[in-house]
Amino acid sequence: MSRHHQDTVTVGVGALSIEEVVAVARFGAQVEISAEALAEISATRERIEELAKDPTPVYGISTGFGALARRHIPEEMRAQLQLSLVRSHAAGSGPEVETEVIRALMLLRLSTLCTGRTGVRPVVAQTYAAALNAKIHPVVHEYGSLGCSGDLAPLAHCALALLGEGPVRVDSGDIQDAGDALSAAGIEPLVLREKEGLALINGTDGMLGMLCLAITDLREAAKVADIATAMTVEGLLGTLAVFADDLQQLRPHPGQAASAANIRAMAEGSKILEAAFEDFKKTQVQDAYSVRCAPQVAGGFRDTIEHTALVGQRELASAVDNPVVALDGRVTSNGNFHGAPVAYALDFLAVVAADLASISERRSDRFLDVARNRGLNAFLADDPGVDSGHMIAQYTQAGIVSELKRLATPASADSIPSSAMQEDHVSMGWAAGRKLRKSVDGLQRVLAIEVLTAARAIDQRTEGDTAQAAAGTAAAINALRKVTPGPGADRFLAPEIEEAVQLVQSGVLIEEVEGSIGKLL
């Protein structure tokens, strides 16, 4: 999204915001560690040093891990213990994960280190920040996390790079050895001590990073859905009466009211709708559900996003590690690494993304059927029969919507035991995040095709005279016409769809509309 963002994010003992996560992950903002965080890290490290000298075994400091926690590890083998942990857990497989997810993952692990609750030395956090600022991005793979005991494999690949091992990309360049990349950036590879390997891999950072990115994109998609709906109402000669504010207040869901307000703002002053008003009352009476109930569906979508944002903000305020250095100084095992709360939120979003795409596709389809499109050409074709118009654009939407419905099946409903049944219930939150990213992309594409289709319909009705359209819908059409031609004989359609998708995904469509009618809710 082409949105304003800060250039530097301070990572301290408090919570980052979703916007700060996106600034670093997507837009490459630099990070700095607060003096308060460094002081807290130093203070809690002293407690770890004390326990390391204690003959009583302490999990994560002087024992093995997981099902091997009963073995006491002598002091001279503890550096090897931490190194072996990172190497063995960097066991991912499959395609590379996107750079923005890796950056979010790294930032959020750094954020937990900066709470001081993990017991690492300050140099560990400083090295993490330096690698992030140098845009050294470890190669992280699609598979390897069960979303419990943290996103173990993804985080282990990141930790391994800090040790100077494994493959990385620098600023999205070619793959190179991590040791070479650190050397070129003037960063000394870490040599791990007690507890530090475990602290680097035990968190919900990957799934939380994907949640922050998805929330940002889906908030934008909610606005795009309202833009598309208003264009469809205008293109189908519908009515704005059902979007009146007093009707929304009879069912006071905040997302519904916001969506209806956006639709009204978009279509206000439409000469097309004014001219069709009397005929609508006589012959149509009311619009189909996909049009009339748009605020109810888009509103539920919006409210679900805000629920998941609350979950995300709570998780951003968390110190997820095991064992953890508690506020009273004790080092204790806990279950905060379990990803269930985040996994549920990710799955909720996949459900509502599928449904918003579904109603968008149904609106688009109405334009193509002469029995329902109120006087437009079949399939919006220039010469129906010779031309097919947007017939197959709807097929593309339908194929995506069908895929989104499959992706709406919750990952968090599944669990496979691991680690010799010590870790016998897991969240699958990483998998929920991975499929949600596909859902977000699919939703954006479906909405883009609705915008493209509605614009074609309005242009056909007005013969390209956008002065007849509302200011908001005209702004959307004009933004589209900067990159795609208007109606005409059939031509290669895929590039036009992709241009519309880029308008949506870049945020340019929203910027153009808001530049004309003011901020949308």
Automatic annotation (TrEMBL):
Domain of life: Bacteria
Assigned GO CC terms: cytoplasm
SUPFAM superfamilies: L-aspartase-like
Biological process per Gene Ontology, one example term: L-histidine catabolic process to glutamate and formate
The protein's Enzyme Commission number: 4.3.1.3
Keywords: Histidine metabolism, Lyase
Pathway the protein acts in: Amino-acid degradation; L-histidine degradation into L-glutamate; N-formimidoyl-L-glutamate from L-histidine: step 1/3
Pfam families: Lyase_aromatic (PF00221)
Subcellular location: Cytoplasm
GO molecular function, one term: histidine ammonia-lyase activity
Catalytic reaction list: L-histidine = trans-urocanate + NH4(+)
Family (UniProt): Belongs to the PAL/histidase family.
NCBIfam families: hutH, PRK09367.1
Protein name as it appears in the record: Histidine ammonia-lyase
Organism: Corynebacterium stationis
